[in-house]
Structures are given as structure tokens and as C-alpha cells.
Prior knowledge:
- By secondary structure, the chain is α+β, with helices and mostly antiparallel strands.
- Helix content is 44%, strand content 17%.
- It contains five helices and six strands.
- It has a three-stranded mixed sheet with strand order 1-6-5, with no helix packed on it.
- Helix 2 (23-37) runs antiparallel to helix 3 (48-69) and helix 3 crosses helix 4 (71-89).
- The longest helix has 22 residues, at 48-69.
- The radius of gyration is 21 Å and the shape is elongated.
- The protein starts with 10 loop residues before the first helix and ends with a strand.
- The model is unreliable at 1-6 (pLDDT under 50).
Amino acid sequence: MRIMANLQKNWYSILGAAPTDDLHELKQKYQRLVLLFHPDKQKPGLSEEEVELQLQSFIDVDQAWKVLSDEESRKTFDLQLRAHELKQSWPVDACVKLEDMDWDSENECYSYSCRCGGEFHLEKDEAEEEEDSVVCCDTCSLSIEVKSCG
């Protein structure tokens, strides 16, 4: 099960929770929000747009609970969240378009020369993702952001 590789939604934020909250705290927050957004509990006279927003909030709260209440899916999500946070704060020395990198058919990866003489390598499967990637030099501490073509 792929839980949210690109982190479009932060399940903790949806529940108003923190990654340090235990299962009991998560359950209390879930129960409060599920009652607040439940379609049968809505006040009459809401606009169609408000009804849709309430329903989407209800669905999001339910999905957040499904992910965070299961120990394995929560661990997976925590790892993805941490990786996303690290990626966002990673210092980037240059931005490079994927099309400006060299294709290494022997190793099936893209490469780009670093000013130190080392190489930046981007695996084929990472290059096929629609998100931009941060790649570190294999010799020094410099990094580049590779802009995807898609």
C-alpha cells in the first residue's frame, strides 16, 4: 500500500496532532473531528460548496485515522514525512535540468560533473518521478536540484 509518497496531505495536521501523540490522543482528536465533519451532523442551510468542503474534511479525517492508527502505516508515513522535511531544507548549490545531464547507459543513470571533479548521479527511476530531486556529489558536500521535465 502506497501511503502518500508525495506528501500531498499531512495526516497529523489534518487531525490537529503531532507525531509525538500516542494512539489514545490521536483517537480523541479523530473522534472529535469526525463528529464535527460528519455529513449527518451538518447544519441545514449550508451552501453546496460548504457541504462539499465538510465532506472532504470528513474523508480526510477518516483517512488520517486509518493511516495513523495502524502501526505499520504510521511508521511508513513518519519516514516519508521525515524524508520530505529533510528534502525541503537541504541546501542546494545549483539547479540543473534533467535534459542537461548525461545519460550513462552502462549504469542506467544520469550524471552531471561537479566542479570538484566528482559526479552527481540520478538513478533512472528517480528521474522518471514527476518531482524535482536533490542529488549529492559522490566526492564533496555539494548538491544540485534536478528539475524534472514532466
